[in-house]
Design a protein that fits this description.
By secondary structure, the chain is α/β, with parallel strands linked by helices. The protein has two domains: about 140 residues, Rossmann fold (3-Layer(aba) Sandwich), CATH 3.40.50.10860; about 160 residues, Rossmann fold. The strands form two sheets. Strands 1, 2, 3, 4, 5 and 6 form a six-stranded mixed beta sheet that branches. A six-stranded parallel beta sheet has the order 9-8-7-10-11-12, with helices on both faces. Strand 8, helix 8 and strand 9 form a beta-alpha-beta unit. Helix 6 crosses helix 7 and helix 6 crosses helix 13. About 50% of the residues are buried. The chain binds nicotinamide-adenine-dinucleotide.
Length: about 375
């Protein structure tokens, strides 16, 4: 990959690498945009096969965070971090403290939180070295694990998508195929089941959700079979890139709506879903609940406010569907347009008046 070409094509501001031999830390922080505010995004630990794979992941994820914050109406930019390694093997206090010093070295331009492979407990160590961390434990005056809020937002987004595509947002009897029963997928499946939805699910580690599966009579399928399941909603809640050349022909759903980041392997897969009349709830819009929650923690944390703002993902999804219909484009394009418009206004305002653009954005309510 030609890194600078990529950064210039996709608008990244800064990519920083950090290596610490003693703790074994190999980390990359990508800041995509700080136009709306400091870049906030989680830290992912993953056993990437190559450094290039890790770099591409952090670049793509950080860009998604910019749009997520923008559509959610937050005064935050987009950033993300990856740590290379198997989370089951590499974690230590020394590693997270070294990582905390890395975050601190960016002087608040980047604020971290948990993501795949990291937990609230890991952030406690990061917090010993930097104040630029959120998603902290309740005992540290934080808001705890953001996953329940993410799941709630996805649930609200699924209801909005069903309202459009099925004519009702009552989930009784609606079939949802959930890919991944981890922190978010688990909470989501539980909420959907409580509303009377029929859940078909998969996980590469089926034991992890055994009690949930039994309690709600969830039908489990093999990981690769989830794409062939005939259902109303396919909810990707594991990893990104699952809507791709190999899977798109296999989908038997009316809606794709889930928690995973970067669900579309390439943007053209969003157009292909549109052509097939499968309604796609853009990932960074529907999964913004966790970000809304940790962003609320940056002030004095108010749980009611976080849940209320997350519930409004229902309206954001409807708004994007309407915009897409009006313009005759795929929903991912409508979401991009909305996200970029808000950033562009802020940029122009900054250039014009030197102000931070907040007043203009508030007036525009976008
Ligand atoms: P997690 O690691 O707790 O759960 C992921 C689950 O997916 C695990 O149980 C794992 O075994 C399973 N899995 C992995 N690969 C799979 C495969 N090929 N097939 C089936 N199952 C597979 O992660 P999480 O926090 O629940 O996040 C899930 C997704 O949602 C991620 O893409 C994450 O980036 C995204 N997301 C999470 C949050 C949050 O608040 N946790 C916020 C926004 C987006």
């Amino acid at each position: 990959m030609e890194l600078f070409d990529y950064m210039q094509d996709y608008g990244h501001e800064q990519v920083t690498f950090w290596s610490d031999k003693e703790s074994g830390l190999k980390a990359i922080i990508a800041i995509h945009s700080t136009v709306l505010g400091p870049a906030l995004g989680g830290t992912r630990i993953w056993a990437y096969k190559t450094e290039e794979e890790a770099l591409l992941d952090v670049l793509r994820l950080s860009e998604g965070m910019t749009y997520k914050a923008s559509v959610a109406g937050l005064d935050l930019g987009g950033g993300k971090a990856v740590i290379i390694g198997d989370p089951a093997k590499i974690k230590s206090e020394a590693l997270f403290r070294s990582y905390g010093r890395f975050v601190n070295s960016l002087g608040g331009h980047y604020i971290t939180a948990e993501d795949v492979g990291t937990t609230v407990a890991d952030m406690t160590y990061v917090h010993k070295e930097t104040s630029h961390v959120t998603g902290l434990a309740r005992s540290e005056h934080g808001s705890g694990d953001p996953s329940p809020l993410t799941a709630f937002g996805v649930y609200r987004g699924i209801k909005a998508a069903c309202k459009t595509q099925l004519g009702t947002d009552d989930l009784q009897g609606v079939t949802v195929a959930v890919q991944g029963l981890g922190k978010v997928g688990h909470c989501l499946a539980e909420r959907l089941a409580e509303d009377g939805a029929k859940i078909i699910a998969t996980d590469i580690n089926p034991q992890a959700a055994a009690s949930l599966v039994e309690k709600h009579n969830i039908t489990m399928v093999e990981p690769d079979e989830i794409y062939d399941v005939s259902c109303d909603v396919f909810a990707p809640c594991a990893m990104g890139g699952v809507i791709n050349d190999n899977t798109i022909d296999r989908l038997r759903c009316k809606i794709v709506a889930g928690a995973a980041n970067n669900q579309l392997a390439e943007t053209h897969h969003g157009d292909e879903l549109y052509t097939r009349k499968i309604l796609y709830a853009p990932d960074y819009v529907i999964n913004a609940g966790g970000l809304i929650n940790v962003a609320t923690e940056l002030g004095a944390y108010d749980a009611d406010e976080a849940w209320r703002k997350t519930a409004a993902i229902y309206d954001s999804i409807l708004r994007i569907i309407d915009l897409a219909k009006d313009e005759g484009v795929a929903t991912y394009k409508a979401a991009h347009r909305l996200a970029k418009a808000r950033i562009e206004v802020a940029k122009q305002e900054k250039e014009k008046s030197g102000s931070n653009g907040r007043q203009v954005l508030e007036a525009l309510k976008i």
